[in-house]
Each structure stands twice: as structure tokens, then as C-alpha cells.
Amino acid sequence: MNHFVLVESNTTGSGAIIVERLLARSDRVTFLTRTPGKYPFLARKDPDLHVEEVDTNCFATVIKAIQQIHEQQAVNAVVTTSEFYVPLVAQIATALGLPGLDPVAAQTCRHKPSTRKKLSAAGLLTPDFYLVNSEKEAQDLAERVEYPCVVKPPSDSSSHGVKLVSNSAEFMERYYNIHGWKENVRGQVLDGSVLVESLLEGPEYSVETVTLPGGQTHVIGVTDKHLSQEPYFVEMGHDFPSRASQAIQQSLIQTVLSALKAVNYNFGPAHTEVRWTPRGAVVVEINPRLAGGMIPELIGYAKGLDLLQIWTDLVLGLPVDLTPTHEQNASIRFLTAENEGELRAIRKIDEATVIPSVREISIAAKPGRKVNPATDAYDRLGFVIGAGADAAKLSRHMQEALETIELEIEPIECAIRV
DSSP assignment, residue 46? Predict the structure, then answer.
């Protein structure tokens, strides 16, 4: 039995899956969190699952808690699936002498302006970028920046707060919005800085990699990403492996490998988002973790690789096998609301389930929830996953499934009158 300490996690998806997987193979899981109620899957009764309420935003508190836990039962690995806690976990693993990502690399990846500086210094293409810290800086930049441009928080997740703006009025409105955030969704204190970037034109991809101990990076593959309509950049679906030409994929891969080297990425999975622009491949961001959006599950369907197992074996110091067992295509499409209102019902899930190629349907949203057209990943309501040998047929079946599932949404004004 191995003993894993999880410092927070995703509230769904890989967060729930890693706990389920570890318990299924008789490992012990100690879950440290500020807010146990955020995680429905922690309600399960299992003698090998122990939950401790700890201030996970304080390094000294977390490492003291883990040292006390270690005295009771030896800790073999400290991990997280939450991007917000990757730097903290990297620090802790280093302090305890456990396998993990270099803490400086983890912090560089989490802070997008720091990533930009490293990539630019390495000679890689980057968008123009500016870190704005005051109202005067914002007003000055608003008068001279080229529009449209992207305004975003420098260290967030799930496209939260990211928006394309077209003029100085929109620029300042978005600046005031982000600058006013005192803390992020995990209660971590923010400094009010705002990141402004030039718009990258072209399709978006991600490159999934695993860096082995010693620094050798293995490319798992390239993912096609389907984004929402501007001014937002919500991921509405993924296809793995990519349907782009081999020439484009090779350029994306080489750019990502160079980017990982530039930030001294030395251990574990990474999910690097890239735009294919008229100038070539440009890194959007390096996520120092397994991909979200159920991409690891797509890779399982497409290649037979269990990235979660590979990652947990890595942090235990075990050898891993990255050889695919088969080659197929896999896709995910996310369900979102087309209008604002109250979700009253979700129908025809059974009808969608029997569509050829469909493998999974998951609906997280419950009737009674207020919904709106997606502005970030938190607004997604559920997903459909499909897999098959024929990529074109798979795409048709995914679209058919989306069109089959019915969301009954009562407009807000109607709900108010009632």
C-alpha cells in the first residue's frame, strides 16, 4: 500500500478520478483541503480515505501537517490535480525529498508573464504582452495598444476572466473587473495585476507530454481544440489525436519541446496550449499538470495509455511504459447553455447514449441551477465523449449527440414573473 497526500484537486474530472483510482488499487489517500464541501466525492466512506481541513494556501501549515501525517504513516507521494496548487506541491515535494517538478519551473509556468519572458529570451515567438499594475498604467496602455487585444488575469485557470476587447472603453472595463479581484476561486490573495496580450490568430492546439526523471520529454500527442465564439475563449471540445497535417503537428511539437526546455521543465506531465498563426507556432501557456477537459480520458480511448497511472507511477519512482496499445480517434464535446436562465430539465440522454461512437455522457448541472452562455469552463454543464476508428464518422456522431440532448432553460425574466 502506498500513501498519497493530495493537496486539493479539481472538484470534478481528474480530481474525482484520481481518488477513485488510488482507492481502487488499495492505496491510502490523505486529502488536505481548506473546504471539504467543494468535493462531493469526499463524502464516500472508505477506510483508506482520510480528509483533513488545512489552510492549503499556507506552505508552513501544509508541510507541518504532512510531516505529522508522515509520522503516523509514511508518505510516498504528494500531488495535486489543481493548477492553483502545483507550485506549492512542487515546493513540498522538494522539501521532503520526493519526486516532483522543479519549484521554480512550476511557478514560472503558473505566472504567464514569467513564461512569456522565458520563451522570448529563448528566441521563441510570443504575443506582445504587458503586465499592468495600476489604473494609470492601464489608461496609458489603453490609448496605445493595438485592438483587438486580450485582457486576462496573469495566473488563473479555465479561461476565467479572459476576454477579447475591441476599444479603450472595453479595455478599461475589463481592467477594473480583474484588478478588483482580491482573491481567486481558491481563496489565494491576488495583487491586482492584469495581463494584456496581442491577439493570436489561428487554430488552437495542445501538446500533451510527460517528462521523465532526468529531463527526457516524451510526446504523447497533439490535441485539436474547439473554442467558443469571441470575445471569450472557452474550450467547447477536443479531438485526439489531431487531424492537422503532420507538418503542422511537428512544428507544434518542436515549439513545445523548446518551450519546456526554456522553463527548465524537468518532471511529470504537461499540457501546453499553442496557436498555429501566420508566423508559425506560438505558445499560449504551459500548464504544469495533466490536461483538464477529460483529455487524459480521450488519450485512453485513442491510444490505450492511462496517463493518471503513468503519473502516479512516476511520483512513486516506478518505471513507466508509454507505448500505445492501439490507435483510434477520440473526441469530447461540452454542453453549454445558449441563453441565460434557470435549468429546468435535461432530456434525451438515453437516446444520445445509443448513438454509434458515443462512449460516455456526463451531466454535472442539476435542475434549478442558474445558467448562461459560457464565458469560462465553469459554465459548462456536461460532456459527451466518443471514440472510433473513423474520424469523420466520429465527428458526425458527436454533433448528432449534442443535437439530441435537450436542455430546458426558462429565461430569467419568466422565472422572476412566476
Answer: -
Displacement of CA 125 from its chain's centroid (Å)? 23
Please give the chain's pLDDT, 418 residues, in tens.
899 999 999 887 788 899 999 999 999 999 999 999 999 999 989 999 999 999 999 999 999 999 999 999 999 999 999 999 999 999 999 999 999 999 999 999 999 999 999 999 999 999 999 999 999 999 999 999 999 999 999 998 888 999 999 999 999 999 999 999 999 989 999 999 999 999 999 999 999 999 999 889 999 999 999 999 999 999 999 999 999 999 999 999 999 999 999 999 999 999 999 999 999 999 999 999 999 999 999 999 999 999 999 999 999 999 999 999 999 999 999 999 999 999 999 999 999 999 999 999 999 999 999 999 999 999 999 999 999 999 999 999 999 999 999 999 999 765 443 3
Fold of 200-327: D-amino Acid Aminotransferase; Chain A, domain 1 (3.30.470)
Query: Where in the chain are the domains?
Result: 3-98, 128-198, 200-327, 329-418
Report, in angstroms and rounded to the nearest whole number, the Rg of the chain calculated over CA atoms.
21
Class of domain 128-198 (CATH, top level): alpha beta
**Whole-model pTM?**
0.94
Confirm or reject CATH 3.40.50.720 for domain 3-98, answering yes or no. Answer: yes
CATH superfamily of 329-418: Aldehyde oxidase/xanthine dehydrogenase, a/b hammerhead (3.90.1170.50)
